[in-house]
């Protein structure tokens, strides 16, 4: 074994800054994903077939193509087509937000569909209009199905976020590579980055379990 | 009063209701019986427009409610429904279950709605369960809450779709007793049921559905003693 972590010690502050760089763009992406995903989910459950078609097509495209391809297209194609020199951060947030919206919309749609059909009938039989029925009866029950799955999506997003290193965004992954090139040793910085990713995911998982436990107490 | 005029219902290529006509008068208690799959639930659900009849008309107090222009929600305000599987709102307490629709649909204040709800819960014997969540109740208690929830809207008519079929035998009576009391108050009721003794005792009229056809209709005493059709005789032989 020929491992030497002493060399990366001076680089640790540089690497640790990558945590924030990663989290920053993951958080922005999540917000876009949530807002757009909710809108798409609403389109999917309406009876308006045009909106349904759009939302389904959107989901199909973003789930049916590689994430890295979507990233490249947004990063390279937008400047080429529009002349707008899109910043790295914006391309990253946009790609992950748009992509995540497709998954989030499916999670929300499935969560709503999983609510017992009888609930909607009971509300309808009482003469409750659509909006309050959704807000007061269906969504509070759907949340229980939705939240755990959403947290899973965020964990996936955090891990997949390493792809943005390919367009030069200085996230944790990219920083590990830079350090590796600097000290001519790749294994140690990659190992450190891996440990940090694992800790982030571990914490998110624990938060998810805590939320799930609290939701289940209500049953 | 609610009147069905030649209603039919088709699902895909399955004709589930065939030209059913009948009138349920104010204060009348009508039992709907028939074999499984004969269309009893579908008939009941047509009455409050949970299902839209494929053809035919339904009148509520001489107002044609199958008209496209009629607001279904307004119709349903006046028709309460109780389901086999209760369908209480699991994330609300018993009291909130009962007060929700009067507040949201009729615009009652919280205190007005609670006053009505508490009276009804007392009537169905569940005053002590006000703050419980549905998952803490027995089946019989759940169904009594569901009845109170429907009554809180002060409907003119109550529909029951096999209200005791999902209950353990020892809980059937408490629910039937509540329904009997309700019938005694002059409520108009349509009850799909397999409880033949209850139908015999409480109903003013029996409808016998078979394969989507309203095959017999009449006085319960006569119907149960001497059904006119072969099909009804067979059915009664099996269930009695
Ligand atoms: N939403 C639906 N879509 C398609 N077919 C349906 C639907 N609802 C009911 N049916 C069919 O209509 C027929 C009558 O059903 P219905 O539920 O009215 O019978 P029922 O007399 O209430 O039976 P049960 O005693 O089993 O409750 C059945 O064959 C059923 O499969
Ligand atoms: Mg039925």
Automatic annotation (TrEMBL), chain A:
It is found in: Cell membrane. CDD domains: TM_PBP2. This is Arginine ABC transporter permease. The chain crosses the membrane at residues 20-43, 55-78, 84-104, 190-211. InterPro entries: AA_ABC_transptr_permease_3TM (IPR010065), ArtM/GltK/GlnP/TcyL/YhdX-like (IPR043429), MetI-like (IPR000515), MetI-like_sf (IPR035906). It is a multi-pass membrane protein. NCBIfam families: HEQRo_perm_3TM. Its main location: membrane. The lineage of its organism: Bacteria, Bacillati, Bacillota, Bacilli, Bacillales. Keywords: Amino-acid transport, Cell membrane, Membrane, Transmembrane, Transmembrane helix, Transport. Belongs to the binding-protein-dependent transport system permease family. HisMQ subfamily. Residues 19-208 form the ABC transmembrane type-1 domain.
Automatic annotation (TrEMBL), chain B:
Transmembrane segments: none annotated. The keyword Transport applies. SUPFAM superfamilies: P-loop containing nucleoside triphosphate hydrolases. Keywords: ATP-binding, Nucleotide-binding, Transport. Pfam families: ABC_tran. Residues 2-236 form the ABC transporter domain. InterPro entries: AAA+_ATPase (IPR003593), ABC_ATPase_HisP-typ (IPR030679), ABC_transporter-like_ATP-bd (IPR003439), ABC_transporter-like_CS (IPR017871), MetN_ABC_transporter-like (IPR050086), P-loop_NTPase (IPR027417). PROSITE patterns: ABC_TRANSPORTER_1 (PS00211), ABC_TRANSPORTER_2 (PS50893). GO terms for molecular function: ATP binding. This is Peptide ABC transporter ATP-binding protein. It comes from Oceanobacillus caeni.
């Amino acid at each position: 074994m020929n491992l030497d972590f002493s060399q990366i010690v001076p680089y640790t502050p540089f690497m640790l800054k990558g945590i924030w760089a990663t989290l920053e763009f993951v958080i922005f992406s999540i917000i876009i994903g949530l807002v757009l995903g909710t809108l798409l989910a609403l389109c999917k459950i309406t009876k308006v077939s045009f909106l349904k078609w759009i939302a389904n097509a959107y989901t199909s495209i973003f789930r049916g193509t590689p994430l890295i391809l979507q990233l490249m297209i947004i990063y390279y194609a937008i400047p080429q087509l529009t002349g707008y020199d899109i910043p790295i951060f914006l391309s990253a947030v946009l790609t992950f937000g748009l992509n995540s919206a497709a998954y989030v919309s499916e999670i929300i749609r499935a969560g709503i569909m999983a609510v017992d059909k009888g609930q909607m009938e009971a509300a309808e039989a009482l003469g409750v209009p659509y909006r309050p029925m959704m807000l007061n009866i269906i969504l509070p029950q759907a949340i229980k199905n939705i939240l755990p799955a959403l947290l899973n999506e965020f964990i996936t997003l955090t891990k997949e976020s390493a792809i943005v290193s390919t367009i030069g965004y200085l996230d944790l992954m990219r920083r590990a590579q830079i350090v590796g090139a600097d000290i001519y040793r790749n294994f140690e910085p990659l190992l450190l980055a891996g440990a940090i990713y694992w800790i982030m995911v571990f914490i998110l998982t624990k938060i998810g379990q805590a939320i799930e436990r609290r939701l289940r107490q209500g049953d | 009063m609610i009147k069905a005029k030649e209603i039919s219902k088709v699902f895909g290529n399955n004709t589930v209701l065939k030209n059913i006509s009948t009138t349920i008068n104010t204060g009348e208690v009508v039992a709907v019986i028939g074999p499984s799959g004969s269309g009893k639930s579908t008939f009941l659900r047509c009455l409050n427009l949970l299902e839209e009849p494929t053809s035919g008309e339904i009148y509520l107090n001489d107002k044609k409610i199958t008209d496209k222009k009629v607001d279904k929600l307004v119709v349903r305000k006046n028709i309460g429904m109780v389901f086999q599987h209760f369908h209480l709102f699991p994330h609300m307490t018993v009291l909130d279950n009962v007060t929700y629709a009067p507040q949201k649909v009729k615009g009652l204040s919280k205190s007005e709605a609670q006053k009505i709800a508490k009276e009804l819960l007392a009537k169905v014997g569940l005053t002590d369960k006000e703050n419980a969540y549905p998952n803490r109740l027995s089946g019989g208690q759940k169904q009594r809450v569901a009845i109170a929830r429907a009554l809180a809207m002060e409907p003119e008519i109550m529909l029951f779709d096999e209200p005791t079929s999902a209950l353990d035998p020892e809980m059937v009576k408490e629910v039937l007793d509540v329904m009997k009391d309700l019938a005694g108050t002059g409520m108009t009721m349509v009850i799909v049921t397999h409880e033949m003794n209850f139908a015999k005792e409480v109903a003013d009229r029996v409808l016998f559905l078979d394969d989507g056809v309203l095959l017999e209709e009449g006085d319960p005493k006569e119907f149960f003693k001497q059904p006119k059709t072969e099909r009804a005789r067979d059915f009664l032989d099996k269930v009695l």
